[in-house]
Amino acid sequence: MRIAVTGRSGQVVSSLLDRGLAYGHDVVAIGRPDLDLADPVTVSQSLEAAAPDIVVSAAAYTAVDKAESDADAAHSVNATGARLVADAARMMGVPLIHLSTDYVFDGALNRPYRETDAPAPTGVYGASKLAGERAVLETHGDNSVVLRVAWVYSPFGANFVKTMLRLAGDRDEISVVADQIGNPTSALDIADGILQVAANLSASTDPSRRGIFHMTADGEASWADLAEAIFAVAARRGGPVAQVRRISTADFPTAACRPANSRLDCSLIARVHGVELPNWRPSLEAVVVRL
Fold first, then answer.
1. Is residue 241 part of a domain?
2. Would you say 267 and 283 are in contact if contact means Cβ atoms under 8 Å apart?
3. Domain extent for 68
4. Is residue 202 in a domain?
């Protein structure tokens, strides 16, 4: 299967290149300047030139705090850009997998969010990603899947795991928020899930396999829990470690409001696509060891 993925160096893009090779798929990463989500001509031309069997829309504006003062840019990439990619996939007649986020929810529920729960983003980033979801489904909804993922980490790019290991190199104690919970998810596992969904879309035109799905790792944690798990693995491998000081969200103010509850219910994708990502702890260990 030939897969065109938007972006060049993001965590999911890099993971798809890594895992696609292992599964024997031809994954082509297309990013700027060849594909610029602000330029409709480059989007259609570059995707058509790649001649894919399926398109994965992974490129996004992900600077959550900066988005609060840069709303136009966030919406240009995450909403307008998503529509351009969906339109190109529609014109080529190929399925589209679009990546979204837990930030479309406000985090107020006391249980994991289901696909049927009403979105209520609290910041510009979440609002722009929600607009992107809607643009994709309006443009190419009969042959698209929107995958909401959360708390992504990997051996690639910038992420929480790499930040913790870097900070532990010169600090004995690190303050980490303990009152936000979610599903820490390896981008390598996300790539595996995407490849399974892609195979299902290619094999069947069943409408039930299209639409919105949640896809995160099994198990939950707070950011402080995750930091402690990172250092536990690092300690066993002789890597950098630090003491975790548990703090509240109020102790660490940011421009954007983060959801207190980012947990996503993934039972639908398990039932429809047979995708069940592994527990986050073994996947975390594999990434920390690799780093």
1. no
2. no
3. 2-152+185-218+264-278
4. yes
Q: Find the CATH number of the domain harbouring 197.
A: 3.40.50.720
Structure confidence by residue, pLDDT tens digits, 12-69 = 999 999 999 888 999 999 999 999 998 899 999 999 999 999 999 999 999 999 999 9
Q: Which residues pair with 29 in a beta bridge?
A: 5
Mean pLDDT to the nearest integer, 197-206: 96
Which whole number is the average pLDDT over 244-273? Answer: 96
Number of other CB atoms surrounding residue 236 within 10 Å:
12
- Domain count within the chain: 1
Reported confidence tier of residue 202, pLDDT bands at 50, 70, 90: very high
- 103, 113, 125, 153: which one is catalytic? 125
Mean pLDDT score of the chain: 97
Q: Indicate left, alpha or beta for 157 from its phi (over 0: left) and psi (-120 to 50: alpha).
A: left
Active site residue 23: no
Please state, as a whole number, how many other Cβ atoms lie within 10 Å of the Cβ of residue 42.
Answer: 17
In a domain, residue 53? The reply is yes
- CB of 49 closer than 8 Å to CB of 102: no
Whether the link from the prior residue into 52 is cis, omega within 30° of 0, is no
Cα 87 from Cα 110, distance rounded (Å): 37
70 in a structural domain: yes
